[in-house]
Fold this protein.
Amino acid sequence: MLKQAPLLLAPLFVAACATVPDATVHYYRTMATTQVAVTQAVSCTPAGDRLLIGYSAVSTTVNAADPKTEVKIHIKDIDGRLANIAEAFKFSEDGRLSSVNSTMTGVGDTVLKDLLGVVGAGGKGLIAPMGEAQACTEIGKTKDKNITLTYKAQWTYQPSGSARTVDEVDTALIPDDASQPWIDKIGGALPDLSAKATPTLKEAHRVVSDVATADAVILKLNDTIPVRLSVNATKKATKATHEVWSADAVAPFVTTADDYVVAIPKAAILGKQTFALTLADSGAITELDFGKDSGVDAAVNSAGGVYNALRPRTAAEKLAELKAADDLKAEQVRAAQCNADPTTCK
């Protein structure tokens, strides 16, 4: 079952008219741990000579701060002379960056979209005779003539060297304490269970690339890559393996070769600049907005029309100016005549 949990946020807001405080923002990039829990239902054929086994599974991926990947942002670096700026940073409760809003003339709207960190529950059942009579004898002693066993596996995704991906995971599923006595009794007749996590892309997709870092403040992010989760059962006697369940997840990681970066433009003297970044719980970019207004019109108005006075006139503007001058002369003549003889006023 898909479960949704709200992301708790601790906002930090800084605004200034002429200056901003010389403070430093700290945040962590994201790592993820996936846990797979498998339920194995075991019964026997009516003849009591073969096992019937069914499976169901659920997986949960939990995103958390990676303390080895701290990033620092100096707010003063975003400031610009004669610029009004506003900066809004939002964080998850464990210190991960959730969103950034940067506006040079006011704070824009922030839309925060949380990515659900839970992979869907369920799975495909399997009925496969793969046991022996001795195991059925033990199961036949139970009240319901069947048993239910539970297994778990857990792992944290690791970057794969210098590549923009994660290492494939292939790990054994371990029975819980309640199931272990039955494993001790009939484990030799049961298949070995393992869980896998395999990246489905050759490398992580980046929505931003070739970032110009000069005259900008750099945000360091983590990559994300989709992975396919699966549970496999391997017969002890034949070593034949078949998949009994699968699901999809997203694995965040920090590439060791090249950082995934996004640049926040520094404040400009004129005009308005906006920058809005929203991250999923996994650290993936879900929304990225850039905006810029040169502010030339405002500068012209505040300068008392100096720009209009100095720039060359177009042909249309020259005709309009001549017409305005002729109209002024005509109005001056009319006014003079009116003053001389009020009966001629029109």
Remarks:
- The longest helix spans residues 315-340.
